[in-house]
Amino acid sequence: MRVAITLALLAASGCGGGGEAEPSVAPTLSAIQAQIFMPKCTFSSCHGDAPPSGTMSLLPPAYDKLVNKPATQVPSKLRVKPGDPDGSYLYEKLAKTKPASGDRMPQGQPPLSSGELASIAEWIRMGAPQN
């Protein structure tokens, strides 16, 4: 009886086998730029027009600035390592509370939702195509 109650509580809370969140944005670079980067990362002097923070501009077209490029803060890591979200510094900066260097992004703003992170992870997992 206790096991059944525990399993029911876990299922109701979203724990125990729920897996990864569903992407909330199409896992394409164009959709991610339009629906995540532009409204949440390119404002003010962050990663937009003014000299971008960490020399990382996320304004379109961002592909050549992201994919297979060394991270400024941790040059041993690629900003986006195609096929490997966990090995991509961009994903680390967005997903981890304590990334290898600096703060989680977007700095001073609420973290990205699990659906937004799932969209970025899926785009990277698919090989980070220029779409």
Helix content: 25-40%
* Alpha-carbon Rg, integer: 17 Å
The average pLDDT score comes to: 81
Biggest sheet details: none
Q: DSSP strand (E) fraction?
A: under 5%
- Structural class assignment: mainly alpha
**Based on DSSP secondary structure assignment, what is the total number of beta strands?**
0
**Alpha-carbon distance between the two ends:** 51 Å
| Low-confidence segments | 1-18
How many helices does DSSP assign? Answer: 5
Q: Secondary-structure element order, as H and E?
A: HHHHH
> What is the overall shape?
globular
Task: Give your account of this protein's structure.
- The protein is built from five helices and no strands.
- By secondary structure, it is mainly alpha-helical.
- The termini are far apart.
- The chain has helices at residues 2-13, 29-41, 63-66, 89-95, 114-125.
Give structural attributes:
37% helix, disordered N terminus
Which secondary structure elements does this structure contain, and how are they paired or packed?
Blueprint lengths: L1 H12 L15 H13 L21 H4 L22 H7 L18 H12 L6
Short note summarizing the structure:
By secondary structure, the chain is mostly helical. The chain is built from 5 helices and no strands.
